Amino acid sequence: MQVRDWKSSAILLLSTALLFSSSPAAYAFDINGSVSKESGPFDLFKFGFNAYKKGQKEEAVEAYRYAAEKGHTGSRWALANMYAAGDGVVRNDFEAFKIYSEIASQGVEPGSDDTGFFVNALLSLARYYRQGIPGSPVNTDLSQARQLYFQAASTFGVPEAQFRLAQMILAGEGGSANAQQAKKWLNLARKSGHAGAMSVFGNVLFEEGQTVRGLAFLTAALDRCNAKDCPWMQELQERAFSMASEDDRRVAVALAPEVYQEQ
């Protein structure tokens, strides 16, 4: 099963919400109301989801906690994300890390509805191991981060994991550097439409001497970048363009739409 990016679990969560009953949820977590801490995990999850949508985040957190204690993976995932972002709770990356670890340690059955949550947990744990969590027992562990990205990239075909793994391989983080392996993962991710992977792939080609193709990929990627990634991608493209001839730049710009569709 391929999960296209680390936010796919959010789409999966929303899809689940669309199956909810149309009956209105209670407006506060009231043990005398329609949902209590003794309710089933899915009812608690529904309540938490609806409370979150209404901006009642304290009630959402409480409902998610009860559902998580009863083993509901989606509630664990939602709670971990809230701790990681400081959304409705005081930000606590170590608490988020612990919950993501619980999800990852459960594993996942092939084709399970929990696959998106599991993959998201792998990516979140990889990010924490790559950066470490100051003031906690979680230290930087590049080898572990690389292994988690590899698991998500190879087993689940996640473009974001393929991109992050390629970055680490290029830089020799958590293992040896290998440009050819990195290109393989970048190529897979960019075929799925990952703009960042397309940009880095183009830059690698450019540095290898494939000037026109490299410039074409850099240009195609920049046309599809999101606001967060546009600055560094534009910097890569402008640097390469400044080193290329006018003829190469002109051919690359014309070729950009074609390489974007290239499989």
Brief description of this entry?
The chain has helices spanning 8-17, 41-53, 57-69, 73-85, 93-106, 115-131, 142-155, 159-171, 179-191, 195-207, 211-222, 230-243, 246-261. It is mostly helical and 263 residues long. Mean pLDDT is 88; it is low at 1-28.
Can you offer a commentary on this structure?
It is a single chain. By secondary structure, the chain is mainly alpha-helical. The chain has two domains: 1-140, Serine Threonine Protein Phosphatase 5, Tetratricopeptide repeat, CATH 1.25.40; 193-263, no CATH class. It is built from 13 helices and no strands. It has helices spanning 8-17, 41-53, 57-69, 73-85, 93-106, 115-131, 142-155, 159-171, 179-191, 195-207, 211-222, 230-243, 246-261. The longest helix is centred in the middle third of the chain and has 17 residues, at 115-131. The radius of gyration is 22 Å and the shape is elongated.
